[in-house]
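Ligand-bound model needed. cobalt (II) ion.
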Amino acid sequence: MIKKISHIAVVVPKLEEAMTFWVDALGLTLDHVEHVEAQGVDVAFLPSGESDIELLRPVDEESGVARYLQKRGPGMHHICFEVDDIEATLARLKAHNIPLINEEPTFGTGGKKIAFVHPKGTGGVLVELYELTPDEPARRLERMDAMRHRLTEGRRVYAQGVRAFFAGLRYGRNEEE
Ligand code: CO
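Prediction:
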């Protein structure tokens, strides 16, 4: 069963510049920025109701997202649905002969199960599926708690200039590693 749209991911060349539209003009709030080593990207999370807009900025030039940006330019990258049973959803897709990038779920951040559906089976849209692990909400809270201090400072800096804000986040990230 599909629970909701988890996030819509948009590839941008620079997070700072993207904030001009998404935050300043549209009015979304920047919740936090995470570096996802496995995908070679920085991800900015902008909650919108029950879902997030995720801005993906490639850090590693060899990453899939970097190649996507070089080839197709900035724009929408994928839609992610949260499901309650990812194996059941994959089985359903297979029964409909939909080609899958991940035949079996792989593990994403926080231990969640994820899988991608191939765009050639979806009319050109890259679709991601998420199944949260039972302890994911608790982990997320923990992580948010750890970030609160940094965010408080970050938001203050943000008012003074986005560039400094991101520099601050990046500094914080390195400290954490
Ligand atoms: Co995603």
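The first strand starts at residue 2 and ends at 11.
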